[in-house]
Amino acid sequence: MGYKQALEAYIAATNTHDFNQVEKVLAENAIYWFTDKSCTTRNEIKAYFENAWGTIRDEVYRATDVQWITVNQQSAVCLYTFRWEGFYKGESASGSGRATNVFMKEADGHWKLKHEHLSS
After folding, report:
1. Pick the CATH number of 3-119 from 3.40.50.1100, 3.40.640.10, 3.10.450.50, 3.50.50.60
2. Please, what is the Cα angle at 58 between 13 and 62, to 5 degrees?
3. Are 37 and 28 in contact (CB under 8 A)?
4. Where are the domains of the chain?
5. Disulfide: which of 6, 37, 71, 80 matches 66 by Cβ 3.0-4.6 Å?
6. How far, in Å, are 11, 35, 43, 51 from residue 55 at the CA level?
7. What pLDDT digit, counting tens, does each position of 33-88 carry?
């Protein structure tokens, strides 16, 4: 699986609403910067995801306008617009923002997400 497929796998895992699936595509010591919080441990990242899934029910997350701004044999960085749709307090809701993802190629050849920065 290449770096582009790693992004696709990450989006698909996010849409399962099961952190066990998301965790499979995360690098060790992954770091997330959200608009309202930075998460530097696996437990913090898991809690943030699970809170989001509990707040926005049936959320569907998408990446559009993906631009790979740097790629080499060990790392790849992309920018994209994230879009989400779901239900907030029983009402249909949606939103979007900007994302930066950094993928690293691990020793076993698999690409994993090392950093994500989301902002609304």
Report:
1. 3.10.450.50
2. 50
3. no
4. 3-119
5. 80
6. 18, 16, 18, 6
7. 999 999 999 999 999 999 999 999 999 999 999 999 999 999 999 999 999 999 99
